[in-house]
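Posted in: Structural Biology > Protein-Ligand Complexes

Title: Requesting predicted complex, zinc ion in pocket

I'd be grateful if someone could produce the 3D structure tokens for the following input. Sequence and ligand are given below.
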Amino acid sequence: MSAQPGYPQPYEDADNAPFLAAWRKGVLALQRCKGCSKAIYYPRPMCPHCWSADLEWFEASGKGTVVGYGVVWRPNHESFQPEVPVVLVEVQLAEGPLMLSRVVGDDREKTRSGAAVGLVAMPDAARYPLPTFRLA
Ligand SMILES: [Zn+2]
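-- Reply #1 --
Done. Output follows.
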């Protein structure tokens, strides 16, 4: 399976290339600061907590909890129209950072704050250009 045709694609640069490469294999990669040990998302060259530039990549669990969500009935890009309603979520990852993403699946309208979510696994993951979740 390959990425859904027509989806807007993420801009790739030196900071997020490892993140995007991992996701193409269905893996959620996060950075961890070697200075303060905190996990970091989104990808960046410097720790937002202690400003250390000594960061490493690791494979996250893919587990998280919905902090907040929004249900979109009129997406602003035509490629999402067949997937209405689109459920946008802010997920608190088990490793700590917050991530904006989507919940997909037939039960996505049951998304609520506090719901447990897990990363979409391969081969379905290949459909989405960025890490995407299902209700756990
Ligand atoms: Zn740090």
